[in-house]
Amino acid sequence: MRATPRMGFAMTETEKPVLLSIDARGIATATLNRPHKGNAYNAAMLEGLIAGLDQLRPDTAIRGLVIRGAGAHFQAGADIDWLAEVAAYPPEPAFAASMATTEAMRKLNEFPKPTFAVIQGACFGGGVGITCCVDVALATPAAQFGITEVRVGVAPTPISTHMVDALGLRQTRRYAITGERFDAAEALRIGLVHEVVAADAMEARLAHIIDQMMLSAPTAIAMTKTSFLEANGLTLSPRQVAQLAHEGWMQRAAPEGREGLAAFQAKRRPAWYK
Q1: Residue range 180-196: mean pLDDT, rounded
Q2: Does the predicted model carry a pTM greater than 0.90?
């Protein structure tokens, strides 16, 4: 699929944390673009993702959105250096950082057009959240997954509802509490991804699925997605978003959060390990 520039999107500025392109059929691609950090998210990446979703949502020419990660990894969760910085923020900007994470996930989950994720390498924390929020998730056999926030003393509240919606409470409890890593085969078994596809066959498989989707009427797709979420109570109210953001902020700023981030940065086990 050949990308063509559209007004308002960063097409060639490789320093941008989110690169957006649109092909001739109206399929947008958002590439998470911090490969030197495993595409770990920070404030700039969250802002870029939110801005992109807001611009794409009302555009009737857009038929779908593919999310990719630049380089070897899909998305390695939050940038630990950024989290440590945020932990020292005063209340208002610290809460705003949690709100940005929660809002980015909500907007992706409630995006009215078909969404796809192509997952390779690391997919941890927020990467798992993105995977839970898209309509179709494809992974290469070598992909590795983990809901690892608790390992650094923080809670995955911005993605908690989306994980339970996608995986069910039983599987979410195990992996969000233990922080275990798991492979693509396990991700397929628990329903986190829809298919595991060889890396050299991924583009052809994605193109086929998108071609099948293009046979479906855009407004009917949007109505179907909305009905699935709203009729089953899977949308988040502003109050719920604020509550999830508040809980994440409070745990990050708590002694455990500070110790976990410090331990990770020092490459040592946290004080609570016995």
Answers
A1: 98
A2: yes
